[in-house]
Amino acid sequence: MPAASHSPWRHLPNAISMLRVLLVAPICWLLWHRQWSSALMLVAVAGVSDGLDGFLARHYGWQSRLGGMLDAIADKLLLVSCFVILAWLGEAPLWLAAIVCGRDLVIACGALLWRLLIGRIYPQPSLLSKACTLMQIVYLLTVLLALAHWPAPDATPFVWLVAALCVASGADYVVRWSHRAWHTRRAV
């Protein structure tokens, strides 16, 4: 097998992340027009592709700084858009959409500050952050299953789990990256 850096497939995880970015517009359109079944299918594709690109990147050593950034951008665009639209339409709690958006705003502001004050940033999602993303996708799929009149579990436990994971992972990012910033700035 060729070295990971020379494989013709090494850009596949980035292409999959770009596909997720491109899926955001049609998913938003479908949600806005209450085309629940079609939106469900595309959100499911986006959710599976999120796991697939990460698996391929780690398993084959195809990780890159660009890939980490594309993955984070794709996740944030997809999840924030879906939560905002569903909350606007009254299909998800407004307060939950605010927590999801607030967490991502805190992370984005922290990344911007890091870039301005310290330098290049290399996205390193924690297990807590990955669990948060996974539960947001599970929640969206559960809501869309119910809206499309498919058998679906009660979304209420997922509401509280998503809220708790958003708060915990947001706080975790602030603590971990503040600690890193403190030590990085002291070393200079």
TrEMBL record:
GO biological processes: glycerophospholipid biosynthetic process
Keyword rRNA-binding: no
Pathway noted in the entry: Phospholipid metabolism; phosphatidylglycerol biosynthesis; phosphatidylglycerol from CDP-diacylglycerol: step 1/2
InterPro entries, per the entry: CDP-alcohol_PTase-I, CDP-OH_P_trans, CDP-OH_PTrfase_TM_dom, CDP_ALCOHOL_P_TRANSF_CS, Phosphatidylglycerol_P_synth
One GO MF term: CDP-diacylglycerol-glycerol-3-phosphate 3-phosphatidyltransferase activity
Catalysed reactions, semicolon-separated: a CDP-1,2-diacyl-sn-glycerol + sn-glycerol 3-phosphate = a 1,2-diacyl-sn-glycero-3-phospho-(1'-sn-glycero-3'-phosphate) + CMP + H(+)
Compartment annotation: Membrane
Topological relation to the membrane, as annotated: Multi-pass membrane protein
Root EC class: transferase
KW Magnesium (keyword) present: no
Transmembrane region(s): 12-32, 38-57, 69-89, 134-152, 158-175
The entry's keywords: Lipid biosynthesis, Lipid metabolism, Membrane, Phospholipid biosynthesis, Phospholipid metabolism, Transferase, Transmembrane, Transmembrane helix
The enzyme's E.C. designation: 2.7.8.5
GO cellular component terms given for this protein: membrane
Family: Belongs to the CDP-alcohol phosphatidyltransferase class-I family.
Protein name: CDP-diacylglycerol--glycerol-3-phosphate 3-phosphatidyltransferase
